[in-house]
Design goal:
By secondary structure, this protein is an alpha/beta fold. It is built from eleven helices and 15 strands. A hairpin with a 4-residue loop joins strand 6 and strand 7. The structure holds pyridoxal-5'-phosphate.
Length: about 350
């Protein structure tokens, strides 16, 4: 296979920076990839990463940190561990909708509030049935480019304080700050904001979610093998292990990435993301052939921008980019032929974005 491109703006898997490539080389050279996932060497790697994640995101001591295979598996695990009968999902695009489908596929009733693509739900003016055991939302809906503002999450938490809340942060974490106390479960994979390869998922699981899962287990409700109790057992007693043979390379890389972000300061990374996004939105708003898909600037994603071009322009700019060995990410699903999505993750440099703008300058 030949090298597909030199630089990608795809929203995931994302561009891998040189420092991460160096970490990969280090892990390979030192045989980290071949250590036993039941041995002391793996424990050291996993403990390093759990601690680094906990420190970076101020994950409270009573929240468990689990390694999974993907964010998709996060939906499955939440559906089986946290919902006996009913859930409620805010749907504003493909990924938030997929969680609702996943709940349905496990035989749970999932009430939905559906916003049109490109818009965000009016979270605080929706009636969520009292029977809902879990509320799900997607912090950054990667398919459409809308982001839930932080104060909406806080207010939702206050309004429905008795209900469990699970938040998908797959395409925002690593590029922003989060207040982990504001939800019971946060889950993500690594191939987006973290700037790492795909194939690792992580869940932060709070005490109320753990309690709910254990209560379901004691009622003999089927939760499958990947239940929080089993996952906790593998992590406990200083083992830091997983049920499955995990993605050891990515666990190592994630720990290293956390340490770097800790040094830069998460707030600085977040601020830079916001400044760069604002510059990019201004650029595309004043462009004759392009416009941001999301009309309301207050809910536009700073992490994954969705830009409407139309079919002809899309072909033109994609070809132009590809001549320079640059990949522009396509729109999602029904937006594939008319829109592009642009990652604004920390792994991409300011110079990369100057190159991007040049593509659109003629
Ligand atoms: C918001 C969001 N959630 C979940 C997923 C699924 O992630 P994974 O493919 O790692 O399971 C994606 C993938 O693009 C996503 O963008």
């Amino acid at each position: 296979m030949k090298k597909p491109f030199d630089l990608t703006f795809s929203v995931g898997p994302t561009q891998i920076s040189q420092v991460v490539k160096d970490d990969i080389a280090h892990a390979v050279a030192n045989n980290f990839l071949s250590v036993s996932h039941r041995g002391e060497d793996f424990t050291q790697i996993s403990e390093m990463t759990v601690n680094a994640l906990r420190q970076l995101y101020n994950v409270p001591e009573d929240y468990r940190i689990f390694f999974t295979t993907s964010a998709t598996e996060g939906w499955e695990i939440c559906a089986r561990n946290l919902v006996e009968k009913e859930a409620f999902s805010f749907v504003c695009g493909h990924f938030s909708s997929a969680f609702a489908h996943c709940l349905n596929s496990w035989g749970k009733t999932c009430h939905e509030d559906v916003a049109p693509w490109g818009e965000l739900n009016d979270h605080l003016n929706v009636d969520i049935p009292q029977t809902a055991e879990l509320i799900t939302l997607c912090h950054n809906e990667t398919s459409t480019g809308v982001t839930v503002p932080d104060d909406t999450i806080q207010k939702l938490r206050q309004k429905y304080s008795d209900c469990l809340l699970a938040i998908d942060v797959t395409s925002s974490i690593g590029a922003c700050n989060l207040d982990i106390n504001q939800a019971d479960v946060w889950y993500f994979s690594t191939q987006k904001g973290w700037g790492l390869p795909s194939g690792l998922g992580v869940m932060f699981v709070g005490p109320r979610a753990m309690a709910k899962s254990k209560a379901m287990l004691s009622k003999h409700l089927p939760q499958g093998f990947f239940n929080f109790t089993n996952m906790e057992k593998q992590m406990a007693d200083g083992k830091y292990q997983t049920i499955q043979t995990p993605n050891i390379l990515n666990i190592y890389l994630l720990g290293q990435q956390c340490k770097r972000l800790q040094q830069t300061g998460l707030q600085n990374v977040h601020n830079k993301t916001l400044v760069r996004a604002s510059d990019l939105y201004n650029f595309f708003e004043s462009h004759p052939n392009a416009k941001p898909f999301v009309e309301d600037p207050t809910v536009r994603s700073p992490f994954s921008l969705c830009i409407e071009l139309g079919e002809e322009n899309l072909t033109h700019y994609k070809q132009k980019a590809s001549q320079q060995k640059i990949e522009l990410g396509s729109g999602y699903g029904k937006l594939k032929k008319t829109h592009i999505r642009i990652a604004n993750y920390p792994a991409l440099t300011d110079t990369d974005f100057e190159i991007l703008k040049e593509i659109f300058e003629s």
